Amino acid sequence: MTDNRLKVLIPEERIEARVAELGREIRERMGDGPITCIGVLKGSFVFMADLVRAIGGEVRCEFLGVSSYHGGTRSTGVVRITEDLRHPIEDQDCLIVEDIVDTGLTMDYLLRMLAVRGPRSVRVCTLLDKPAHREIDLDIDFVGFQIPDEFVVGYGLDLGEFYRNLPYIAVYTP
Ligand code: IMP
């Protein structure tokens, strides 16, 4: 089935290769101990599943439900927590796993929210970094790909809840 609103930006093989590299980079920099991976739902669920296997070793999987978009292609800047972590993260080395950082508002909010829970460290891994509209200066520890100022879907990223199941990242043009 072809959808002419979609144009492949990052094919499946490139994602696969980069996720494997990210897993190695994360272990190199975070060491061999347990890592608490915190996937930001819903967008990161596909990336999270591949990344935790690439990281290997002792990994805890936690999820945070966050909603910052309401079916459109523009950030509202309002972050709503729809599901909290199930366990405390005190004294743990944490890695926030995000699909895309755009304005940075969501990540900034999450970093401040998690900091007060006493983790030993919090690092950030995003599959995609779209710096064109960054409003907050963030330190992102691990970036899969920097992308241009386009609205993208696939590999977990949606438009109105669709396209998350595409195995590649595509630019969406209505
Ligand atoms: P930020 O708060 O502006 O950094 O936006 C972060 C969130 O916006 C991400 O977790 C995504 O859910 C969503 N988002 C930003 N850009 C895109 C895009 O190009 N496609 C799909 N979702 C996006």
Structure explained in plain terms:
This protein is α/β, with parallel strands linked by helices and 174 residues long. The protein is 24% helix and 31% strand. The protein has a single domain, classed as 3-Layer(aba) Sandwich (Rossmann fold). The protein has helices spanning 12-30, 45-55, 105-115; strands at 6-10, 35-41, 59-67, 80-83, 93-101, 121-129, 142-146, 152-153, 169-172. The strands form 2 sheets. Strands 4-3-2-5-6-7 form a 6-stranded mixed sheet, sandwiched between helices. A 3-stranded antiparallel sheet has the order 1-9-8, covered by helices on one side. It is globular and about 50 Å long. The two termini are 17 Å apart. Bound molecules: inosinic acid (IMP).
**Biggest pleated-sheet summary:** 6 strands, mixed
Q: Per the principal axes of the C-alpha atoms, what is the gross shape?
A: globular
CATH architecture: 3-Layer(aba) Sandwich
Number of helices: 3
What hetero molecules are bound to the protein chains? inosinic acid
Note the beta-strand portion.
25-35%
Which structural class should the secondary elements be placed in? alpha/beta
Distance between the termini: 17 Å
Q: How do the strands of the widest beta sheet line up side by side? A: 4-3-2-5-6-7
